[in-house]
Design goal:
Elements: E1 7-14, H1 17-28, E2 33-35, E3 42-48, E4 51-57, E5 67-71, H2 77-86, E6 90-98, E7 101-107, E8 113-119
Parallel strand pairs: 1-4, 5-8
Antiparallel strand pairs: 1-5, 2-3, 3-4, 6-7, 7-8
């Protein structure tokens, strides 16, 4: 096992966050937290200790949204992405800034896009600088 995630988050993109929040609240009773500000504003709802949904402003595109994203609780996203690339995984989005952290995306063996995420307060590398 390369890494054990602490949670899975389903990430959607929506053109209008307020409209989307009203829809999911009226249909399913989901109460979203509004997080971030300005262009970094997004909606967040926790369903259990290890599953949540985030909705970010953007254009929904089949194949890229929704995105199942796994949180790396200890960090080390740069090491994980490097190891996955060495194992032949297709990295479609390298480690980059994400809301309140860092993220990356890759394709699983069947071509489904999955994401990795770690909070800002965790190190990018856990295996030293030699990698």
């Amino acid at each position: 096992m390369l890494v054990k995630p602490s949670e899975a988050c389903l990430i959607y993109h929506a053109t209008d966050l307020d409209r989307t929040a009203r829809f999911y609240n009226s249909v399913f009773g989901i109460e979203f937290e509004h997080r971030g500000a300005g262009q970094d504003r997004f909606l967040f709802a926790r369903f259990s200790p290890d599953f949540s949904i985030s909705i970010m402003k953007g254009r929904p595109e089949p194949g890229t949204s929704p995105l199942l994203t796994f949180t790396l609780p200890q960090g080390g996203i740069a090491d994980v992405v490097t190891a996955l690339a060495e194992q032949g995984a297709t990295i479609v989005s390298p480690v980059s800034d994400a809301p309140q952290g860092k993220g990356a995306a890759l394709l699983d063996p069947d071509g489904y896009r999955i994401g990795l995420y770690q909070p800002d307060d965790k190190p990018l590398r856990l295996m030293g600088e030699s990698r």
